[in-house]
Design goal:
Layout: E1 2-7, H1 12-22, E2 27-30, E3 40-44, H2 48-53, E4 59-62, H3 68-71, E5 80-82, H4 89-105, H5 108-116, E6 133-136, H6 140-151, E7 156-160, E8 170-173, H7 178-183, E9 187-190, H8 204-208, E10 214-218, H9 227-236, E11 239-244, E12 264-266, H10 276-291
Parallel strand pairs: 1-2, 1-3, 3-4, 4-5, 6-7, 6-9, 7-8, 9-10, 10-11, 11-12
């Protein structure tokens, strides 16, 4: 069995060593143009040339939950596209969302500013029932975040493309229920896959439907947000702030207005990083199941993009 590693932005050596440890029977190599046919591939944003040269692959294992970079490429319909189900990312994503939510809800940015000026201040406690949290995307990550937010006793809403039933979450589905979902939300969390339908889903119209003084947390993809629509909504007071981990261009350009806006908190696409050992163990398990002719979780429908 031959397995190729083709991971843009990933140093191949540690991944090759980890894969060889859990799959000692396999021939595992970093892909080079002109390489002989392989059986499986572990990839992150591979070039089209790789897919053109390897049409016989049984499966592509994507090093992340988001597969938008792959669905834009051409590959054989016989090749399964497989995303990581979790591999340690959901707990990281949950940590990030909870930190952003509580920092906003408890007004810690305001306290930090006061302390920097030597000011001992008081703010009236807010009520959780006034801050319903709306989660866009109710997959593995979204449901994990929803459970954690519930544990902090915030009202939780969820919206997804197809109907979901998540205990304790008021669920909305499809375009016909999207505006109603937004109107009930005061803290909006984006965990959607990036598809043609979700690109630009956070824009002036949709964000204006949120409850007044809403807060936006984007940990999915930068292209979900129409960036030029955000600052006018912040300046008008329609939105109270935003925590952004992802951007249309990364790294965020030095002159971008998000850097200096007082209501925007920026992090460098670090909400949930791929954990090598957990990812390799999951990939090895799935390859073994496929070799036995068994089904696996995480197979992507390219027509849906997730």
């Amino acid at each position: 069995m031959k397995i190729y590693f083709c991971g843009t932005d990933f140093k191949p050596e540690p991944w090759l060593a980890a894969l060889r440890t859990v799959l000692p029977q396999a021939d595992i190599q970093a892909w080079l143009p002109g390489a002989p046919p392989g059986d499986y591939a572990v990839v992150w944003a591979p070039p089209q040339q790789f897919l053109d040269e390897q049409p016989q692959l049984k499966a592509l294992f994507n090093l992340g939950a988001g597969v938008d970079a792959l669905t834009q490429l051409r590959f054989s319909s016989a090749t399964k596209l497989v995303r990581l189900d979790d591999a340690g990312m959901s707990v990281q994503m949950t940590e990030y969302v909870l930190h952003a939510l509580i920092r906003h809800f408890r007004e810690f940015d305001g306290y930090d500013a006061d302390v920097a000026q030597g000011k001992w201040s008081f703010r009236k406690p807010r009520r959780r029932e006034d801050y319903p949290v709306g989660i866009m995307g109710l997959g593995v990550l979204g449901q994990r975040v929803a459970r954690a937010v519930q544990a902090l006793e915030f009202p939780v809403l969820g919206w997804s493309r197809s109907a979901k039933d998540v205990p304790g979450v008021r669920c909305y589905a499809g375009p016909e229920q999207f505006d109603e979902f937004l109107a009930e939300t005061r803290v909006l969390v984006c965990l959607l896959p990036l598809t043609a339908e979700t690109r630009g889903i956070m824009n002036r119209r949709t964000l204006s439907l949120l409850r007044p003084g809403a807060y936006v947390i984007n940990v999915a993809r930068g292209s979900h947000l129409v960036e030029e629509d955000l600052i006018p909504l912040l300046d008008s007071g329609q939105l109270d702030g935003a925590a952004l981990d992802v951007f249309q261009q990364e790294p965020l350009p030095a002159g971008h207005p998000f850097w200096r806006h007082p209501k925007i908190t920026i992090t460098p696409h670090t909400a949930a990083r791929t954990l090598r050992d957990e990812s390799v163990a999951q990939i090895a398990s799935k390859i073994a199941r496929l070799e036995r002719g068994e089904t696996i979780a995480g197979i992507v429908d390219p027509t849906k993009g997730y």
